[in-house]
Design a protein that fits this description.
The chain is of the alpha+beta class. The protein has helices spanning 2-22, 34-50, 84-89, 92-107, 110-139, 145-171; strands at 26-27, 56-60, 68-71, 79-83. The protein has a 4-stranded mixed beta sheet, with helices on both faces. Strand 3 and strand 4 form a beta hairpin.
C-alpha cells in the first residue's frame, strides 16, 4: 500500500510540470540563457524567504506578453511559469514582484485549489463535448425505422452530459 501512495504522490507532483508543458512552457536553462538564470535566482531567493521548496521554473518562450502563473498540488513541488515577454521586458525588481505574487499563491495553498479547479473544469468541459457528440450522432438521419429507437437513448444521455458540461464551459 505504501508503494501505491508514493506513486500517487509522484504523479501529483508531475501534474504541475505537465500543466506547464501543455501550455508550451519549457524548463529553465540556467546555463545557456542569462534571463533564465535571473528567473531561477529570484525564485530561489523568494523560496528561502517564504520557507518553501524552490518551485520549478518554466518559460513560455514564444509569448511576448507579460504573464506568469503557478500550478501544483503540493507547496514544495509547485511550478512557476513565466512568459519570455516578462523576462525580457520587466526589470529585476518588477520581475521579483511578479514572482513574489506567484510564490504567495504557493504559500497560501492557492495552487492546490487552482490545480484541482482546472481538473474539474476540464472534466466538465469533456462531459459537455461528449454530450454534443452523442447528440450529433443521434441527429444523423436514421437509415431505417429501428435507427430512431436507437437515437432516443443517445439524445437522453447526450442531453444530460451537455447539461453537466455547461458549468465547465461557462467557467472556461
Amino acid at each position: 500500500m505504501c508503494g501505491r501512495n508514493e506513486a500517487l504522490a509522484q504523479r501529483l507532483r508531475d501534474d504541475a510540470a505537465r500543466i506547464a508543458r501543455r501550455l508550451g512552457a519549457r524548463p529553465v536553462d540556467t546555463v545557456a540563457d542569462p534571463l533564465h538564470r535571473r528567473l531561477q535566482n529570484l525564485l530561489e531567493e523568494l523560496a528561502i524567504a517564504a520557507r518553501i521548496g524552490v518551485p520549478r521554473a518554466f518559460v513560455i518562450e514564444d509569448d511576448p506578453t507579460i504573464d506568469a502563473l503557478t500550478a501544483g498540488t503540493d507547496p514544495n513541488q509547485a511550478v512557476v511559469v513565466v512568459t519570455r515577454g516578462a523576462l525580457q521586458r520587466l526589470t529585476r525588481d518588477e520581475l521579483q514582484g511578479v514572482l513574489a505574487h506567484e510564490v504567495s499563491h504557493v504559500v497560501n495553498g492557492d495552487t492546490r485549489l487552482h490545480t484541482r479547479l482546472v481538473g474539474l473544469n476540464h472534466g466538465l468541459q469533456w462531459a459537455g463535448l461528449a454530450g454534443r457528440s452523442l447528440l450529433a450522432s443521434a441527429m444523423d438521419p436514421p437509415a431505417r425505422p429501428a435507427g430512431v429507437l436507437r437515437a432516443i437513448p443517445l439524445v437522453l444521455v447526450g442531453g444530460v452530459l451537455v447539461v453537466i458540461g455547461v458549468p465547465g464551459e461557462l467557467a472556461a
